[in-house]
Design goal:
Neuraminidase, disordered C terminus, globular, disordered N terminus, four-stranded mixed β-sheet, 28 strands, 379 residues
């Protein structure tokens, strides 16, 4: 078993509860967000799942999961889905060719018009960082490995980087941001500024092109897309085996232009390994909702909100259970999060939550705690 040491960052925040009084361009206050308990996960040891992601498939009203880390630290490649209408989980009977955890799904259409859910690299069942690029096709319930287009990302010492959830989609291209490497995997404890762009419509062997470098090298970035920009939110730097959460937020037009760090407001408190949702219309127009804030070993339940019109972050609410490494998917204006690690940094969760814009039931205190201690766990 491979180990890494990680630590959290202390967080003290005040919950701002305000209701927007006009259209998005005039808003100068926080739009509250409320999360309620959803249907518990029925898969995985426990049950429960962590270090995974979800992707909504509108044609069948399903959120798909392409494998997951289990409570016993094993890795399953089983593909499951959650039926949004029936509110039930079901095993597809198919498994990803290379089971991995630490991934984010990119929904892309290839040159033939076929929709696939793509994942890039990750951590396999033997705790190795891999370069495998693979896809699941929800219409046919089949999978594919792209042997000619392996994940090319590396750290400065030419180690394979682990991009984890640092994947966004813009204009049918996947933007893969940053990454880390570990001495525990026989490499070097360091991080990358690289970004890479994956085009599913390109010919085999030429699907990857190098993108503009981030200003702040880091991994475990939480991505979001808002308007014509891709955002790289928070993340971790690997300091001699200790992952340290970051406040850095950068944005790039279409994910291909130079990354702007100075012009984008950083988080008030460091966050890593979460889920973020950008909205261009509705009550949350021109905002990003960061649903939870990972801070080893003390995850927090705060829901941070970025207002692109004012370039400010604020706390807009709280999820019901502090977590990190959760899966996430947006269904219209509704946000879903599933599983993850609990606030103790070790317990794998089966719970899920459903979030929407709206006033809170009452003034909830921020779930803040000190992160001065350290904990050993697997990457």
């Amino acid at each position: 078993m491979k180990f890494r040491f990680v630590r959290g960052v202390a967080l003290v925040a005040t919950l701002a509860v305000a209701v927007t009084a006009g259209p998005a361009f005039a808003r100068s206050s926080t739009v509250p967000v409320t999360f309620k308990e959803g249907k518990p996960i029925t898969f995985g040891v426990g049950p429960g799942a962590t270090r995974f992601d979800g992707q909504f498939y509108e044609a069948k009203n399903r959120i798909y999961f392409l494998g997951f880390r289990e409570a016993d630290d094993s890795t399953s490649g089983e593909v499951w889905y959650y039926d949004v209408l029936l509110k039930k989980y079901k095993d597809t009977g198919v498994a990803m060719p290379v089971p991995v955890s630490n991934y984010q799904i990119a929904a892309l259409t290839d040159a033939s018009g076929k929709l696939g859910f793509y994942i890039f690299g990750g951590r396999d069942a033997n705790a190795a960082i891999v370069t495998t690029v693979q896809a699941y096709y929800p219409k046919s319930n089949t999978t594919k490995v792209f042997n000619s287009d392996s994940w090319p990302g590396t750290t400065p010492s030419a180690c394979i980087s682990l991009p984890a959830m640092g994947v966004a989609v813009f204009n049918n291209k996947a933007i893969v941001m940053g990454g880390v490497a570990f001495s525990a995997n026989g490499c070097v404890d360091e991080q990358s500024k690289q970004t890479w762009i994956f085009d599913a419509t390109a010919a085999n062997g030429s699907k990857w092109t190098a993108g503009k470098k981030l200003n702040v090298a880091r991994g475990y970035i939480t991505p979001a897309v808002l308007g014509n920009k891709v955002y790289a939110i928070g993340g971790d730097v690997n300091n001699a085996g200790t992952l340290i959460a970051q406040t850095a937020v950068e944005a790039s037009k279409k994910g291909t232009a130079a990354w702007d760090d100075a012009g984008v407001k950083d988080l008030a408190n460091a966050c890593d390994e979460s889920q973020a949702f950008g909205f261009s219309s509705g009550a949350l127009a021109n905002t990003i909702t960061l649903a939870g804030c990972g801070q080893w070993p003390n995850d927090t339940a705060d829901v941070n909100q970025y207002d692109a019109t004012t370039n400010k972050w604020s706390v807009a609410g709280a999820i019901n259970e502090a977590r990190r490494n959760q899966a996430g998917a947006a269904v219209g204006k509704t946000m879903y999060i599933f599983g993850g690690y609990a606030a103790d940094g070790a317990t794998v969760l089966a719970s899920s939550e459903i979030g929407k814009a709206g006033p809170l039931a009452g003034a909830r205190a921020s779930h803040a705690s000190s992160g001065a201690s350290q904990r050993a766990t697997t990457s």
